[in-house]
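User: Here's a protein and a ligand (manganese (II) ion). What would the complex look like?
Assistant: Let me lay out the input and then the predicted complex.
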Amino acid sequence: MSVLKALVQALGSGGVRVVDLTQTLSEDFPTIVLPPEFGPSAPVRIERISRYDAAGPAWYWNNLSFGEHTGTHFDAPAHWFTGRDRPLGTVDTLPVGHMVAPACVIDCSAGSAADDDFLLTREMVEAWEAEHGLVPDGAWVLMRSDWSKRTGADYANLRDDGAHTPGPDAGCIRWLVEERGILGFGTETIGTDAGQGGHFDPPFPAHHFLHGAGRYGLQCLTNLHLLPPVGAVLMTAPLKVHEGSGSPLRVLAMVEDNA
Ligand code: 23J
Ligand code: MN
């Protein structure tokens, strides 16, 4: 049987399920907060045009506005200075073949529950590999922190000295990019970098190394606890915005029940 016929059949029978890894884009979902000397991201705004009323008796629609890096969103290589000269580095030019790719899920939920500043290290990924096999070339690595289960101020977790959220350390993300050839790195938190990543060397190492190598980021993911450590396939198509550095998107995972 053809691969696509088999897939359609498995989707119909429930052998393959589609899991939504996307947070609802709403006005109260937290937006990244940078130090005040930097330009701020606009928040999400959903402005009613009409809803079966005088402004439109038979139709409902809204005007949307938001920063490119709001809600569950995609970071393109051009987002960071290290990726500024990458060919096909903006969301309108990305190779669409990269938008369907396998995912490895590393469970950091226990460490993240014990320490808001938990850092994923190369050694932890190597321990994961000893159990599940090497991270394959061209895969997403998703850091499960269960951060998506937090609500309100606990999600951004801002203190006087900035955000306190988990992420990869510099050596880990560099190694994943250079030695494992990952397609990208995804988190449940507001950044692909830890909340304190601006103080790392180099600053924001996930942005630095991923985008410098033409790789991608995903942030504000949810439902990572529903994915197996290996075997899920992600569909990640950002909006085709002219020269966009990233965009909110729907992130879907296909998961095989008896994988
Ligand atoms: C701009 C500046 C620093 C960071 C970010 C954006 C993000 O985390 C993002 O959403 O890409 S760290
Ligand atoms: Mn971003």
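Summary: Residues 13-40+68-256 form a domain with the Glucose Oxidase; domain 1 fold (CATH 3.50.30.50).
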